[in-house]
Amino acid sequence: MSEEKQKLEDLLEKNLQISQEIKVMTKRTRKWIVFQQIWFGLQVVVILLVIASALIYVPPFIKSLGNLYENFTKSSPSNLINSLFQENQTKNLQDLSQEEIDNLIQQYTK
Q1: Tell me: the pLDDT tens digits for 76-103?
Q2: Cβ–Cβ under 8 Å, residues 101 and 77
């Protein structure tokens, strides 16, 4: 009986040692899970901040680009030539002097 008791005590001690190892591993795993949850939360916050800043800053930027494009198209050479021909339908563009052409160009690029 003492031999069985000794064997049982050895098994209990081995079981206790394994249980302590499992406890240490479980603590590490819990720490890792908490770290992963915090990291995921930070990623979500950063993504939301990027989206919010894009919603705030992109529309005015697009409007300014639209205004820039609109100003560019208003003073494009084709519009300038069309307006020159509309005002001077009776005159041929080749009949105008260089000074008259320069004056017309300055008038439409202001």
Answers
A1: 555 555 555 555 454 566 667 778 778 7
A2: no
Q: What are phi and psi of 13, to 5 degrees?
A: -65, -40
pLDDT of residue 29: 97
Amino acid at 93: L
Report d(CA 82, CA 74) in Å as an integer. Answer: 11
Tokens 């479980």 belong to residue: 26
In this prediction the pTM is 0.48
- How many Å apart are CA 37 and CA 7, to the nearest integer? 45
Q: How far is CA 91 from the centre of its chain?
A: 54
Query: How far, CA to CA in Å, does 69 sit from each of 24, 64, 95?
Result: 65, 9, 33
Q: In 3-state terms, what secondary structure has residue 81? A: helix
Question: How high does pLDDT run on average in the chain?
Answer: 81
